[in-house]
């Protein structure tokens, strides 16, 4: 299913990152950090991570994406970038100038929303409006008892967290829910650069699809076959329209292993594929036609030299997409 080009969508204008990364009927390309290959272990080396973040910006990638992985859970098999996401975002804000800084995604039920809101607004201010905040309910049950949290009711806490974060973006808010009471006599500062933090909801996050479409500033989803992805994106946008909201962007992740042969046919890997750059371009164009607005590439399983891969992507892929 293709996006209806007869009624061009418009997205909200929120902050510098959101406005640049998400544009109607266009697709931009970002990278998941750390930008390194570590196919046979859970923990990356984090070697040259700062250098490659700067390189990604210089080459024209639209965004860097971190993950929120408080504990290394062996059964999950991936410790993310190891570093705390908000601490790392602060560091990235000082070493880059224009690339968007995203998290995919902060696990809201494991954090108090006041701390999330304060940290997120701080990063947004330090970076000049470059924060994109993905949020999720969490999918690793092992982490919850470690923080004395209940796993089954995480969906309710997720909803309450969203409401709380929205509330403290206002001046001297009056608000109350299970996370706390704001009497109107105190104010959280700093305020986000654009007036609010862009909140991108990951998957279903234990909510019904109508709630996801109405309450997020966009949707993060996972790779699917073209027909299924097109149907999922169309259904999301239909729900947005039914809620009376302005259209919102959709993004997805994608693991790739770029072949040295540009014309190599695709073969399946975890949540992605190995292929040459020719197929990758074709696949990304298809995603764009389906209404996907951003793809976050993950090079964890990439066999080629990472710097060479970045150079090839910058030369042979980015010109077709990133504005």
Second rung of CATH, namely the architecture = Alpha-Beta Barrel
Which structural class fits the helix and strand makeup? alpha/beta
End-to-end span in angstroms? Answer: 24 Å
Shape: globular
CATH level-1 class: Alpha Beta
Within CATH, the superfamily carries the name Luciferase-like domain
Low-confidence stretches: 1-5
Mean pLDDT: 95
Global Rg:
19 Å
Which strands sit side by side, in order, in the main sheet?
Answer: 1-2-3-4-7-8-9-12
Q: Give the SSE order as H and E letters.
A: HEHEHEHEHHEEEHEHEEEHEH
CATH topology: TIM Barrel
Largest sheet: 8 strands, parallel, barrel
Number of domains: 1
Number of helices: 10
* Beta-strand share of residues: 15-25%
Would you report the number of β strands? 12
Helix content: 25-40%
Kindly summarize this structure in a few lines.
With 323 residues, the protein is α/β, with parallel strands linked by helices.
Write the layout of secondary structure elements.
Elements: H1 16-21, E1 28-32, H2 49-59, E2 63-66, H3 85-95, E3 100-107, H4 113-126, E4 131-136, H5 143-146, H6 154-168, E5 174-177, E6 180-183, E7 199-202, H7 209-215, E8 219-221, H8 226-243, E9 250-258, E10 267-269, E11 272-275, H9 277-290, E12 294-298, H10 306-316
Parallel strand pairs: 1-2, 1-12, 2-3, 3-4, 4-7, 7-8, 8-9, 9-11, 9-12
Antiparallel strand pairs: 5-6, 10-11
Helix pairs in contact: 3-4, 4-6, 7-8
